[in-house]
Amino acid sequence: MKVLANDGISKSGILALEKGGFEVITTKVAQEQVANFVNENNVDVVLVRSATKVRKDIIDACPGLKIIGRGGVGMDNIDVDYAKSKGIHVINTPASSSESVAELVFGHLFSGVRFLHDSNRNMPLEGDSNFDGLKKAYANGTELRGKTLGIVGIGRIGQATAKMAFGLGMKVIAADSFIPSVDVKVEFFDGQSITTTIVSQSLESLFKEADFITLHVPAQDGYIIGEKELAIMKDGVGIVNCARGGVIDEVALVKALDSGKVAFAGLDVFESEPKPEMAILMHTKISLTPHIGAATGEAQDRIGTELASQIITLLS
């Protein structure tokens, strides 16, 4: 049987699939050619990440397709229910990238509170001519310890983020309409651990209470954070989005950054991805990454081997 990993797959995933008797194709096929390629090459399984979309047109055009897999959590680029109605298995890897995304959240938080994103832009330009000026400009940093982190969406990634926050001595609050409470176990290198319970509260109360806010939700029909939500937040709040573009009103966010209502933002995803707005890309108060939350070697190894295991189980 043949597997098309159109957005790539780790070497460990390829080896596991080949050991299971599958042929793995890693040729990158253009979106409009995916259906033709699947049919011409008798592909049984299509694996994607966030780039390739598997919609109704591809599903209808490929009657021999047995599995559609998403290397990651969200499956908004796949017509999941329709695929299942056609007898196609749809799989993903919800647990494999949690730590990688959570670490990126804190990369953005550390960058924001210590101005790293802006100092890294300006030190090469002015570090030799205006060292004291830059030192003064970036001298008013903030510690994360003792501050309140508001997590919107306390699923696997939200919980991984909470664990890191606890390790830094932060207070963690959460809002999640599907998870009323969750026990979070923080494990240490020597085998010891502590467990604490996070009880969900309302979004409004979270927005009012949090010093920093991080979003961990699937794609939405509307904004979770817009002008109204920004208005009730603390002055000087920091906001991070490593979830999905379109959950924050970027126009409202820029206004809030310009006014000082929001101290900084960290964005890994964007409304107009893969062509973010220039007002976002050039803003000095925004730490930027190009949708790389799960893009670590460790996460990709876990994703590849987990996909392989599911595929072998389903088709063997």
Automatic annotation (TrEMBL):
The lineage of its organism: Bacteria, Pseudomonadati, Bacteroidota, Flavobacteriia, Flavobacteriales. It holds the Pfam family 2-Hacid_dh. Keywords: NAD, Oxidoreductase. One of its GO terms (molecular function) is oxidoreductase activity, acting on the CH-OH group of donors, NAD or NADP as acceptor. Coiled coil: none annotated. SUPFAM superfamilies: Formate/glycerate dehydrogenase catalytic domain-like, NAD(P)-binding Rossmann-fold domains. Belongs to the D-isomer specific 2-hydroxyacid dehydrogenase family. The keyword Iron does not apply. Residues 8-315 form the D-isomer specific 2-hydroxyacid dehydrogenase catalytic domain. Gene3D superfamilies: NAD(P)-binding Rossmann-like Domain. This is 3-phosphoglycerate dehydrogenase. Residues 107-293 form the D-isomer specific 2-hydroxyacid dehydrogenase NAD-binding domain.
